[in-house]
Every structure is written in C-alpha cells, then in structure tokens.
Amino acid sequence: MHNDNKHIASAFDRDLEAIQALIMKMGGLVEASIKDAAQALEERDVELAEKVHKSDKAIDKLEEEVNEEAARLIALRSPTASDLRTVLTVMKISTNLERCGDYAKNLAKRTGVLVNMNPITGAATSIRRMAREVEEMLKLALDAYIQRDVGMANEVRHRDLDVDQMYNALFREFLTYMMEDPRNITACMHLHFIAKNIERMGDHATSIAEQVIYLTTGELPEDARPKGDITSQKMMDVEGE
Description:
By secondary structure, the chain is mostly helical. Helix content is 86%, strand content 0%. The radius of gyration is 20 Å and the shape is elongated.
C-alpha cells in the first residue's frame, strides 16, 4: 500500500510539472506581448502591434491546455488538501495570464488607431516605462510561484502601488492635455485606456503573487484583489459630461 501511495504521488508530481511548464511558457509569451505592445506604441510600429494581436491566440490556446490538463489531473489523481490547492492555484494563475494577454492585445489594437493621430508629447514613453514595470512584476510573480517565495510575492504587491501611482499621474496628464486643446481628446482617451489596461495587468500580476501567498501559507492577504478602482470611475464621469 505504501508503494502504491508513493507511485501516485510521483505520478502527480510529474503531471504537475508538465502543467507548470505550460504556465511558464504562457508567462513568457505574455511578458513578450507586454514588451512588444508598449514598444509598438512608442515607435508607432503597426507590424509589431499586429504580432502582439496574433500572439494572443497562442496564449489563449495555452490557457485551454492548462485547464484541460489540470482537470485531467484532478480526475485521475483525486488530489486532496494541499495538492488540490496547488492545482486550483495553477488554473487561477493561467486565467490571470490570459487576461494580461487580452490587455496587451487591446493595447496593440489602439496603437493601430493612434498612428493616424498626432502624438501626445511624452505619453508613449511614460506608458512604455509603466509597461516595463508590469512586465518585471509578472516575471517576479511567476518566479515566486516556482520558488514558493512569499517575500518575492510581497515585493510584487508592493510594486503594484508604484504602478497605480504611474497610472494616476498619466490620468492627470491626459486630463490637462484635453482641457488645453479639445483636438487632443480622442488621442488622450485612447492613451488613457491603454494606461488603464497596463494598470490592470499590474493587478493580475499582483493576483498571481497573492495566489503564491495562499499556496504557501494557506491564507490570502486581507487586502487581496480585487481592489477599488476610483480613477477609472473619475474618467467615466468625465466621459459622461
């Protein structure tokens, strides 16, 4: 009986490692999409933006594979307690990565519109800086997952505050540009939603980090996502006026 349990445990570990390999591949694609989308915006590169759009299909496919393999693992191995928590965490991480891929695709789509408008001075550079921060957060969150490192996960949560501050600064900047010259309104609205998409990616990277904390300690932080979204509501109020 002891040998049977050992065999089941080793088979579970092998299956989980295969799923984790898919997660890391998915994470690499998402990180590349964030980087490429921000670069396409700054350099007004439509071809690079199209590359991001196509990459989203590969990310979606990997999410499907992760979910299918995770469901199969649960059905075949009947994991309990911490093993089941590990599998469910993998599925949640996959969902967060897929959402980041969607946001990168949306960023790329808006780039295709913005290339036909006069650029807003400094905006694309600031957005690329913000995207780079989120890209680093995502990489750190995935490293924290592989290493089961709560300290790294908490660093991601702390860095999300910096991303929020970057977003708030851009929000105020876009409002100023729109008030100074109504001809800037359309471009600034597109840029705002791009910045909002990147801020949301930061939230999803933070959610992954919080799943690592849950997986390691058995508890989610008290202030875990979702968080309040005051700035988005402010912009919605402006749009409605």
